[in-house]
Amino acid sequence: MSKKYGVYICKGCGIGDALDIEAICDVVEEEALPCKTHDFLCSQQGVDFIKKDIEEEGTNTIVIAACSRRVNYNTFKFDGCIVERVNLREGVVWSHPRDAFPQLTEEEKQDENNFDRVQMMAEDYVRMGMARVEKVKLPEPYLLETMSRKIMVMGGGITGMSAALDAADAGYEVTIVEKEDQLGGNAKKWRKQLPIQPPYENLIPPMVADKVKAVENHPKIDIRTGMVVARIAGQPGDFTVTLKKPGEKIEFDVPYPLPPEMRVDENGKELEHEALLEKYKEYNEGRRDILTLDPNGEKFGAVILAAGWRPYQPKDDEFPHLGWGASPDVVTNHQFEEMAAAGKITRPSDGREAKNVVFVQSPGNGEDADFPYTGVVTSMVALKQAQYVREDYPDARAYIFYQHMRTSGLNENFYKAAQQDSGIFMSKGEITSVEKNGSGLVVSAKDTLLGENIGVNADLVVLATGMLPVTFDDPTVNLAYRQGPGFRDNDLFDKYADSNFICFPYETQRTGIYAAGAVRRALSVEESMEDASGAALKAIQCLECVNRGIAVHPRTGDMTFPDFFFQRCTQCKRCTDECPFGAIDDDEKGTPKPNPTRCRRCGTCMGACPERIISFADYSVDSIGSQVKSIEVPSEDDYDEPPLRILGLVCENDAYPAMDITGLHKKSFSADVRIIPVRCLGSVNVIWIKDALSQGMDGVFLLGCKHGDDYQCHFVKGSELASIRMQKIGDALSSLALEEERVAQYEVAIDDYDRIPEIINGFVEQVEELGPNPFKGF
């Protein structure tokens, strides 16, 4: 579109009192752009003030210098207009009051130059805003030529049936795929079920039969039993799914990405660009196109993965101190449930009545931990199964030893009801041994609530082993993605099928595929049904967003998608490999093939591309690079001791909100820093850092989410990928004769706002010790 610019500066919230607004207008006019001011732009009068220019003067490219872009979003949203928000309130005025520079002496605080630094900060931000709107375009939605609104549910247990019913009741066609010949899953094997409604005190009959009947009678649900998913190809709104019978062989051409061991040289260092490209071509020689669709496949718009769990079966030598493998009368909770469903509880060794049963909740061995893949449901199951013992034999005794007894919400009532049973004993304690004692067993425990070591004679010992997600050692979804058939990097989640369980439950690392139930974590029936509703809503959200041509999550509503300038593509595969969500495949020639509705708009591909050929309509290497270049770098021509200029590339998901809170609390940091928010640290292209340093800026820091085992990145791998790239930037800095310490990366959570001044000022001090950038003034 032809751009008609307008710059609007708000004087409210203390901005007009702290800054020289006329000087800022002069900066705007130096760029030959119109500049207007208003006392309160966010008021109705202020909004109408802007709308008047839109309607009467055709203004369609707007820079609003006021509060953070994280507030008043809808207030300053004007259809058909490019809008850039310049953060003068939280980012400048509130975080830099005149008396808030503890690093300055009293004499320096009175120096007008220190006030000038805050003024220069505001003027730079306005320059950066103007530079950005010049380089961005108004996004247009990506719409599929054909789209399916059907939802496939993988798994016909309680979770899968609940998800199917929820989606079908909302008006969507649903197909359930279940590998067994009947619906019901593990619930068919239970004697009784945990309560799912008030008063949460008593066991109830399994509800699975009622669920099956409801599914079978629903007009919008198609049931496919005795079938599994052979392959899922395509993208949200246009998945092509091939079904097969269990054990049936169907051959697909699915080349996999270059194995990690082939990406490094003999010293373990990652291969350079050209060598990596040659290795990839060599590895895929003769392989055919991964994207070949099955002409007989069925079309779906979204997938709900509710494939469930299987019991964690300990290895023969895994828990010898608990008698596992040594006695048939030591069983898992899953085995015990099958025994209870079959009739009265007896000892496997001789069939005699089991009237003294010990339930072991934690493996002990000096560790304060439960068995693997357990949760609240494991505690609840122990309470349930203890009641089985009391039901079968009124004079029986059930003993529950635990490190953590967990009952969530109103399930506390179920725990209290069990406490009132005189035949159920519970104690925190560590089991030290389970040994034979005549025809029975003796269980020894220490550190109990009784304050002493105790021994209990037992007919049967039940180990509270966990619920292993079926995705543990089987991709299950069988994706026709270049990055492989399963969920990438699910080691981050102990093999659970989550994308980001902190911020985005139900989402997997593959857009359009949503996990529910025990593939996400160990859950009770009540929790699984709630999970099913969440996943169904996510699948519906996906369909509606794809239908409108916008991103699903976490940037819901974003119309942008990656645009490739293929003429310069070298087929290095970095965009394909580094995309956390598998949004990029290859075509038959090995050229990247984007799947826009898979994309979550994080920009990781943009940061990965060495040729810088990937961009988004309103976010590109050029748009951020232009902002960097618009920052004025003072030199000795202007100052005897020119102030530093330091660039901060800050993740908009956690770090930037934390910085806003820093301003809200009037906590100050160096006014020599210029902040540019980025979609994700994974989108940071190293050219921005090189440009900043080569134009004389004294340092660059990245501020983003925590990565590693305690990662918090909204885009799973972005912060980690940025860290890897920063480790490799040393060579580039050396070629510029600059110290590596001029570039740093820091991690913060959204509630770390009080640490931000310390982090930034610490980096500024580090740069001050290095001295000014030798490129300053050139």
UniProtKB/TrEMBL annotation:
Pfam families: Fer4_9, FlpD, NAD_binding_8
Domain of life of the native organism: Bacteria
GO molecular function: 4 iron, 4 sulfur cluster binding; metal ion binding; oxidoreductase activity
Required cofactor names: FAD
Keywords assigned by UniProt, alphabetized: 4Fe-4S, FAD, Flavoprotein, Iron, Iron-sulfur, Metal-binding, Oxidoreductase
Annotated ranges, domain 4Fe-4S ferredoxin-type: 560-589, 590-619
Recorded family membership: Belongs to the HdrA family.
Full protein name: Quinone-modifying oxidoreductase subunit QmoB
Species annotation: Desulfosalsimonas propionicica
